Amino acid sequence: MFEGLFRPMHLLVILVIVLIIFGPGKLPELGNSLGKAIRGFKKAMDDGGREVEAHSEANKVGDKKE
């Protein structure tokens, strides 16, 4: 189940290193920033998908007129 690069012990070591570097006070800020970045990325992907769909629909309508 936990085969590959990230095993539970690896994740624990990474967490300890992050705590040492940033400290427990900065972790909520980092999590908040990361969450905002992910939400922004998802929103941009959704908007891009809608734009592609609208463009393809416009092309379909244009093809039918010819």
Describe this entry's structure for a reader:
With about 70 residues, this protein is mainly α. The chain has a domain at about 25-65. About 90% of the residues lie in helices and about 0% in strands. It is built from one helix and no strands. The chain has one helix at about 10-65. The protein is elongated, with a radius of gyration of 22 Å.
Give the tags:
66 residues; mainly alpha; 88% helix; single chain
How would you summarize this macromolecular structure in one to three sentences?
This protein has 66 residues and is mainly alpha-helical. Helices cover 88% and strands 0% of the residues.
Global morphology = elongated
CA gyration radius, whole angstroms:
22 Å
Q: What is the helix/strand order?
A: H
Question: Total strand count, please?
Answer: 0
pLDDT averaged over residues: 83
Structural class from helices and strands?
Answer: mainly alpha
Distance between the termini: 56 Å
Largest sheet: none
Helix content: over 70%
Helix and strand topology:
Blueprint: H1 8-65
